[in-house]
Amino acid sequence: NRRMQFLLDEEHGKKHNRLKQLSHFTNLKKNDKQHEEKTYDYVFDQAQAVDFTGGDEEDDADSKLTADEKALWEKIRREEERVKTIEDTRKSLPVFQYRDQLIEAVKKYPVLIVVGQTGSGKTTQLPQYLYEAGFDKGPLGKEVARKDGQKFKIGCTQPRRVAATAVASRVSDEVGTRVGDRVGYSIRFDDRTSEKTVIKYMTDGMLLREFMSDPDLSEYSVMMVDEAHERTLHTDILLGLLKELSSERPEFRLLISSATMDSEKFSAYFNDAPIFNVPGRRFPVSIHYTMQPEANYLHAATTTVFQIHFSQKEGDILVFLTGQDEIETMAANLRATCEKLAGQMERQLIVCPIYANLPQEQQKLIFMKTPANARKVVLATNIAETSLTIDGIANVIDCGFVKEDRYSPVTGIQSLAVVPCSRASADQRAGRAGRTGPGKCFRLYTRWSYMNEMAATPTPEILRTNLSGVVLQMESLGITDLLHFDFLDSPSPEALIKALEQLYSLGALNEKGELTWTGAKMAELPCDPMLARCLLASSSLNCCTEVVSVISMLEESNSIFSGRTSRKAGENPSAQPSAATSAEKFRTRADARLGGDHLTLLEIWNQFATNGFSPQWCRDNFIQYRAMNRARNVRNQLARLCRKMNLYGEEEIEEQNGADSMIRMESMSRDERDRLKVRIMKSFARGFFANAAKLSRSGDYYQTLKKHQPVYVHPSSALFRMVPPPKYVIYNELMLTSKEFMRNCMPVSERWLGEYAPHYYRSSGGK
Ligand code: CDP
Ligand code: MG
């Protein structure tokens, strides 16, 4: 018999009984009467508890702290409690001591690599130091007039949207102005800057776009590429462009900031640029592994949260998961359990999810100081690995996975998959527990997995993703010789050729590989080339209004319904109203048999508009108002841009605050409407012909047209188990879980594919 082990704090072992109940609670569904009664006559189910092996001998430095070290830590902790004002907090950060040296170094060297532990103040402080040193008046802090009379900007790029917005809001507080005033941010579909803005945080993708309108970045005196170690595709391309720029603009200053890894590599790439090291403090973190592999890490994480909560006095908890859906599920699960245990908990558990789509005010919650007699549980993705630092975390729970884009240049198949993270990531995650005192990290995987199943470092995105989007942008910047572009890590020639081929087949490049008029227009649109091609096609097919609606909805398609939208086999469709019956209703109205998920999304959008964008309507239909609101925001911006680019056809009506696609369709006769639907579908076929799949002979799965890879209709799709199944479909994306699933599918006619992509399918010659 396996002995149950809670290796958290032995002296709290008496709480085991309470813990035993917990493993049942976590499985409990709300409103599930049968279970509810069971919860109080619990039997401990060993299989459901999470067992950890003891802290690693060498890692378990917690217990090995000497008396001196403990005293030192106490001193630092008291010191930190003492500093209260913003000014004091700023001064307490490790970078502060190096302020003058840093400014000196920036003035002296055109390119400087700054390395420092996460939380040392690089992101929030360095741009402020440069501003205080007068970099807004001119490069190198000397007064220089700009042609347009404006001040210079200090830019800072972030790989993620959440980081850009959170940091801008934090630095605004520190500077004492509102976001968009002196400090602002710019992310896709959301620009919060003004003429007054001098410190500008932005996503790396947005700076790449700015390069297209201003290749000299003449607005900026200095640019900081932050989190360079993350090696996102956009950051890598930026590094190449900025390297060139800094040889053309000698007064321009470039900072590359990175958590410790890879700094030598950056230095070598930038002709041996100096590395400025900001020493940081970090406390020991003991590592705990599970003894057995965990089949369900969400469940294991929930149980572990309560194990910690009931056995440890203080210290907040940070949980690493792979995406918004998991974060929401776990948050709901934790809250439900808390409700059940309200009477038994000595201290309250505050659940704080964080992801890009969460409203700003809620995002800010994670940074709030935890009230006495409470404990904070932050649920995050790898955003919290290095980009965001949350004070007070003493426990980290690491699921060991990450969601990644994978692309094979051979098959041309791109899919999203949840894969084991790297050891470097796992170590970064663990390190988050040791910022303000000794901490603990609970890894929901075995030590063996860590050693054998995880890669040492993550693969840079540029080596594993579809490059067509950035290749198009580079082409439009006039960088045509991609094979000889100075990349930090060069993508394979196959991947580049594949991207060029795809752009050629979309009509963005001609036979000579030159950018076409269509390509130039596509590059202007802030979306993936395939979607950009749809928009252009919709322009000539007079249905831009509708395609803009569908595209805005596609981004949110996974979070529109609150609840499962697929029915289990044999489930009665007319039973209880639910997300599934509501989805069914929209599918019927949209005639999903013909129009698939795309036209279903349009139907949902139009109904939302008809009902005055009302939250009540959303609730009645099991639709998440927040997701719809985000879609509405994206739609507004995209529609404005399309109007600016003159993509709306003559027949199309004036923008009506998002209600235009609804008004137009309602004013049509049935015939007209059917013809319009066909044009919408053709627009998507024009962009997505490369994602076409044909029904297999057996009829229960599809094969990609190009390489005959088996792919399956996702259960959430309107086409799931449709009888008879359409012969040809195109899909919006592939998601790899147990199989390659096609998400957001639309039936297409073979004729359209032949018409839009004769060269594409001819050249493959079948196999
Ligand atoms: O960039 P780096 O990891 O070196 O540190 P930072 O992000 O500049 O964080 C410095 C300090 O500001 C940390 O103590 C953070 O907890 C704090 N911070 C915050 O309270 N709220 C934010 N939105 C961002 C940072
Ligand atoms: Mg940072």
TrEMBL record:
- What EC number(s) are associated with this protein in UniProt? 3.6.4.13
* Catalytic EC class: hydrolase
The gene it comes from is PRP2
Tell me where in this chain the Helicase C-terminal domain is found.
304-478
Q: Which GO terms describe its cellular component?
A: catalytic step 2 spliceosome; U2-type catalytic step 1 spliceosome
Per the record, which residues fall in region Disordered? 562-585
GO MF, one term, reads:
hydrolase activity
Keywords carried by this UniProt record: ATP-binding, Hydrolase, mRNA processing, mRNA splicing, Nucleotide-binding, Nucleus
Compartments where found: Nucleus
Species for this entry: Dekkera bruxellensis
Within the intact protein, the region shown is: 204 to 970 of 970
Keyword tRNA processing attributed: no
Q: Which reaction does it catalyse?
A: ATP + H2O = ADP + phosphate + H(+)
- Report the record's Gene Ontology biological process terms: mRNA splicing, via spliceosome; protein-RNA complex organization; ribonucleoprotein complex biogenesis
Task: Provide the Helicase ATP-binding domain boundaries.
Answer: 103-279
Write the protein's name.
RNA helicase
What domain of life does the UniProt record list for this protein's source? Eukaryota
Keyword flag Nucleus = yes
